[in-house]
Write a structure and sequence with these properties.
The chain is an all-alpha fold and 714 residues long. 62% of the residues lie in helices and 2% in strands. It has helices at residues 2-9, 27-30, 35-64, 68-97, 112-118, 123-136, 149-159, 165-192, 227-245, 248-254, 263-275, 283-305, 308-322, 327-345, 350-354, 356-361, 367-384, 390-398, 454-480, 494-541, 568-585, 591-624, 631-668, 694-703, and strands at 205-207, 214-216, 399-403, 438-442. The chain has a two-stranded antiparallel sheet with strand order 1-2. The protein is elongated and about 135 Å long. 37% of the residues are buried. Residues 249-261, 411-420, 546-563 and 706-711 have low confidence and may be disordered.
Amino acid sequence: MIHEVLLALSGHPSPLFQSAPVGKANANTLSLLSPSEAALLKSIGTLAERHRQLRDHVQWIESKHQSTICRAVAAAVRQKDLARFQQRILDVESKILTRDATIVGAYDIVPLASIVAEFDDWHRLMFWLWETVQSIQPTTKSTSDGCSGAALINHLRAEASTGFPQIESAAIELSRVAENAWLRQLSPWIVHGKLPAYGSSDFLVKAMPDGRTFQQNTELVPAFLSPATASSILFIGTCLHQIRRLPQQHTKSVHPASPLLTDTQLASTHLQHLSSLPLPINQAQLSRAVSAIRLSLSQNVLQRLLPMSEITQLLHCLRRYFLLDQSDFAVALIDEAEARLQARQQSMGRLLQQDPLKALKGLTIKDAELHQTLNATWKRLAREEVAEDHVLDFARQHVGLRTTTSNAARPVSSDSVAKHAAQVSPIVFNDLLFPTATSLSLDVASPLDLFISPRDIESYTAINAYLLAIKRAQVRLTELWRRTSNRRSRVSNTNTVRRTKDARKVWATSSAALHLLSEISAYLDGEVVKGSCDHFESWVEKPTSSEEMDTTIGSTRSETLDVAQRDPETLSAAHRAFLAALTYATLLTDVPYTREVRSLLGNIDALVAFFNTLLDMQQKLDIDDDDGDTGFAADEEARITLELDRARKRVDSDLRSVINRLRQVDHERIGSGRYLEIKAGESGGFEPWKGGGVDRLLMKLEFGRMPDGAFDIV
C-alpha cells in the first residue's frame, strides 16, 4: 500500500482512490483499514488529487493562455513548486529504501502516519497554488475568461502579505517570475518602440487602428506602476516608434556627427537600466529607471528631432488663431464669413424678407466654401503684414476650417488631469459663424504630435468656437450703430414717432448686450488668455538648468549643454495642465453658464437679423410712401416689428440670466475652487496661472452701469 500511496502522490492513478470522490479512499480499501488509517489515507488522497488537478491545469495554461505572463507563472509552478513536491516524494522513498530511522520503525515497519507527516506542510501550499491557477484560468473550456498579466501580478503581491511564511515565499517567487516576464514585454517597447511580438493583447500599450498612434490600457497597468511612470512608458515607446518611421534622410539629421550616442549604444544603455532592477520590482526604482531612459532619449534624439523653436512656433500659432490673441484674424474671418453668407442670401429673395432667421438656418455650407473663406482671411492678413511672418506661414499650412458634428462628444480638459478636471460643457458654439457647424482644425504631423495630442486640439477648437462666437456677436451689434441714419427722425409724422419709440427699446437692449459682451470678451482675451499664455510661454522658454547633464554609459559622459531644454513629455504634461486650467478659467466647464451664453448669442442673431430687415423695409416704405401703395408692406412691417420685439425680450431675459449665473459662479468658486488644482507631478512641475477671478468681471460690469439705469442689467 505504501507503494500505491507514493504513486498516487506522484500523480499516477491508483486503485486506492480510483472510484472515490476527492479526498476519500476506495470503499473496498476502507473496509480493511482502521478508522485512524482511513483518516490518514483521506489526507493523502486529497493531496494526491490536488496534485493531479494542479499539474493538468498548469499544463493547459502553459499551452493555451493568451497572456505570456500567466504562462510564465504556470511554467514556474510546474518547474519549481511541483518539482519540489516530486522531489519530496523521492526523498521519502529514499528514506524508506535506506531504512532511515526517521520514517522506518522496528521490524522494517513503515507507519502510515510517518508518511502523512512528511507531507503535512504541503497541504496549505497545494491548496494556495490551486487557488492561484484557478484565478489565472477558472476553466479549461475557454480562453476568454482568463485573467490578465497585470491582475495576476497584483494578486501575487497581495498574497505575499497573508502571514504564512510558506505562502509568502511562494508568492514572492512567483512574483519575480511574473514581473520578469512583464519586463520582457516592456523591453522591446521602451528600447525599440515595438509592441511585444507575443502577448501584445496583454500589454499596457495598444496600437490604434491607424497604426501610428498608441493608447494606454489602464486595466493592464500593474499596481506597482505609478500613473506618471505609465505615461512616460507610453511616451518613450511612441517616440521610438515614430523615429523608426521617419525617412532615412530625416533620421540622419536626428543623429548628426556629434558626441551623441548611437542607436546601439542607446539601446544597450536602456536595457541596462531595465536589467538592473531588482525583483520584485520597487516602484521608486522603476520610476527612476524610466526617467533615466526618458532623459537619455530626450538628450540624444528628441532635442534634435523636436527642437524648442518648433514647439514655440506651434504655441504661437495656437495662441494667435485659436485663442484669438490676434484680433485681426477673428475680425477678418467674421467679415469673410458674413460676406459669404450675404452672397448666398442674394438668391433667397422673399423667404429672407419674411423670416431671415429661418432662411439662414436653411443654408448649407460646403467644405469648398469654408476653404475659400479661410484662404481669403489668410490673404487679408498677409496684406497687412510688412515683414515675413513664419507663424502665419505655419498656420496657412496646418490650420483648416471644416464642418463638424455639432453634437459630437466634447473633450475632457486633458488626459493626465482628466480625473481632477471637469469635462468641457456639451453646449456647442460652432454653429454660429455659419449655419452649418464649423470649427477650426489643426493638422499636426510627426514629430509635433509628441507634444500635442488630438484631444488637446479638440479642446483648442472648443475654446476657439466659444471666443469666436462672442466676438462675432460683438461685431454684429457694433455694425448696427453704423446705420446712424435710422436712429434719426427725418420727417415728423405719426409713423416716425411710433417707429422711434419702438426702436428705442431695441437700441437700449442692443447697447446693454454690447456692453456685456465687450466686458466678457475683454476679460477672457485681456486677462485669462493673455495671462495664462504669457505665464506658460515664459515657463517653456526658461531653461531647466545650466549644469552638466550626465548620460553615462560606463565612463562616457555627454557634452555640457549651456541650456537644458525640457524633454517633450514634460512639456506635453505642462501643456495639458495649462490647457485644462485655461478651459476652467474661461468658464467653459460650467454647463449652466455656457447654456445661458449660447442662448444669448442665438437670440442676438435673431434680434440683429429682424432689426436689419425692419430697417430696410422701413426705408423702402418711406420711398414708396408717395405712391400710396403701402398696404401689404405695412402689414409685413407690423409682423416683423412684433418678431423683433419678441427677440428683444428674449435678449433682455438672457442678459439677466448670464449675469445671475456669473454671480453664482463667483460664489461657488471661492477658496480652493477658484482655480483648477493640478498636482505638480501630473503637470511636469508647471503651476498654471492664477489671476483674477469672475469677481473682476462683475466689478467691471457694475462699474459700467449707466446712471439712469437704462442698461441696468447688473
